[in-house]
Sequence to fold (95 residues):
Amino acid sequence: MSVDAATVKRIGRLARIRIEDGEVAAYQDELNAILGFVEQLSEVDVTGIEPMTSVTPMTLRRRDDVVTDGGYAEKIVANAPLSEDNFFMVPKVVE
Fold:
């Protein structure tokens, strides 16, 4: 895939980057080099290789999803200026 001058200007406009007319050729060359490298990656044979999320093997430490605390809502709202049925009450801010 090759990027032309119109595409460079469009990318600049979408990215909200001002690209002067004299800079278009340089950006065009850079984008074409990047896309050329990406095309080279498609030549690599990756059959039989599992996708990975990190370069080092990792496993997440997991714990059981159980409730270990709670049941004292009245203590939580004890210092609230206003509460009702163990819920905080706040003044209305939207008319």
In short: The beta strands are 83-84, 87-88.
